[in-house]
# Entry
Amino acid sequence: MAANSQFAIAVHILAMLAKSCDERIKSDYIAKSVNTNPVVIRRLLSTLYENGLVVSQTGMCGGSCLTRKASDIKLLEVYRAVSTGEIFSLHPNTPDQNCSVGKNIQTILEKLQAEIDEAIEEKLSRYTLQDVIEMVESESAEIV
Amino acid sequence: MAANSQFAIAVHILAMLAKSCDERIKSDYIAKSVNTNPVVIRRLLSTLYENGLVVSQTGMCGGSCLTRKASDIKLLEVYRAVSTGEIFSLHPNTPDQNCSVGKNIQTILEKLQAEIDEAIEEKLSRYTLQDVIEMVESESAEIV
DNA sequence: CGGATTTGTATCAAGATAGGTTACAAAGGG
DNA sequence: CCCTTTGTAACCTATCTTGATACAAATCCG
# Structure
């Protein structure tokens, strides 16, 4: 359970909002599709709100919707909004600074992390939410 | 503490073995440089052994050493040896298959994962252990 | 052969994190 | 003013990673 599925769920949420453009969608409805508790959805919606991707409203006709067109939202933005850590962690304890490897390994690994991050971000900047919902539709079509 | 630092420590271990070519290194010695318990090192050495990167020997003059030249060990191999999961997890529970998004989102995300993995592997295949120890030395030189 | 050393591995404890759940205040609409 | 929905805090549980102890098995040396 430890690995982070927030990106997956965030994309799911946003895809649903994108599909019903303008109409406000309730967390309860999204939760049924994601197959989880509505609070899990609202927690994520809160993060997405902080990152300017959605707005929500309380009350009878409440719910959430996108702040922009799906074609203007890159998956990279979603990733940045919800991502917490790096691909791999560095040492839990500071290595021995009297050893040349211990002294320098972290700097080297950080550079590697940065390079990998760049590669990931490049990939994720290629796709927008619009691409995702088009894929959803073409996958559905394939079945038929 | 939950995030996985095995790749970082594995590179550290292997860099130390690479630096003292042929000579067997004890887990206790590596543990001091990594600043952790020797068992943590031995556990990782065991994984690296399973992946054909090191051999170890018990006894008085025991210890571990590389099976190949440092220039023949790509960081990609190290990554594959110790990596457990993907960059992001999919949904913890199966999404609602009666919803077009729920039905297809995982397939789409898996494709994205595969693309990202490929990008990471490409990056990691560019560097060998030899590069790492050269970086260790040039970093050390910079200080002087 | 016997003793010292080192690895290999099982087992346990501690700390962190994610996710699910309940509860309830606050906002909004009719 | 009541009903609905979001926002958020609080708590529980499962799982993962690391650290630590313990001990058998292997190896080397005298």
Notes: The mean pLDDT of chain B is 95. Chain B touches chain A through 60 residues (CB under 8 Å). The helical segments of chain B are 6-19, 27-34, 38-50, 75-82, 100-124, 129-143. Residues 1-3, 26-28, 38-39, 42-43, 45-46, 56-64, 89, 92 of chain B lie near DNA strand C (CB under 10 Å from a C1').
